[in-house]
From TrEMBL:
This is Triosephosphate isomerase. It catalyses: D-glyceraldehyde 3-phosphate = dihydroxyacetone phosphate. The keyword Disulfide bond does not apply. NCBIfam families: PRK00042.2-1. One of its GO terms (molecular function) is triose-phosphate isomerase activity. It comes from the Bacteria.
Amino acid sequence: MTRWIGTSWKMNKTLAEARTYARGLREALSSRPELTEGVQPFIIPPHTALAAVAAEIGPSSSSPGSAPGVLLGAQNAHWEDSGAWTGEVSVPQVADAGASLVEIGHSERREHFGETVETTRFKVEAALRHGLIPLLCIGESAQVRQEGGAAGFLLDQARGALQGLTEEQLSRVLIAYEPIWAIGAQGRPAEVDELLEPFDVLHREYGDRVEALLYGGSVTPANAPELLAIPGVEGLFIGRAAWSLQGYLELLQLAARPSDA
């Protein structure tokens, strides 16, 4: 099984900082190929740094001096290919800048920018139409969980966004479960027992149908091994613990390590 290990930088890093990180990642993975054994790395810079990071990483994983196998993602993209959408960027534009993956439906986008189940469906369709990988983020609030409605809420978000897809299209989708109460600087790291039911529900619905099911929410090198051991978890979507290159490399090493090591 391939483990997907990625990070979104959110609204962080200047061009210089992004280039330094990307250059260091390229050099580390070129000299330490064991870090990507059984692992698919991906990084999601802000839009302003996407092209610069793509240039540092290299045009393809097989090119001399490139970072082996690293995929680049965009943190958002509009569902229309072009038009009068001031302040937005399209899927063709982020692809042109080097993205092969699009993050869709993060809880911060839903809360602060009006992202809905309907718009996540539009964006998933747009990403697939242009050959990019949709990374669909889903997750419930603390209140929804306390009321016992987490499983239904997650399935509503996922089913709504993935409605109408063929099995072939669905096989190219990544789903990241990120409980809202466990993410961000104020998030509370989830206990393993709290994640068993959500991943059981998601795996029964989408296991072996989507590319991978990921977990995100206060992931650190300390808790990554136990998170990866949860049935149904096929990778990690990491925040601040991977914003430093050393932190990301440490997490790649943990994911690439054999389970009996």
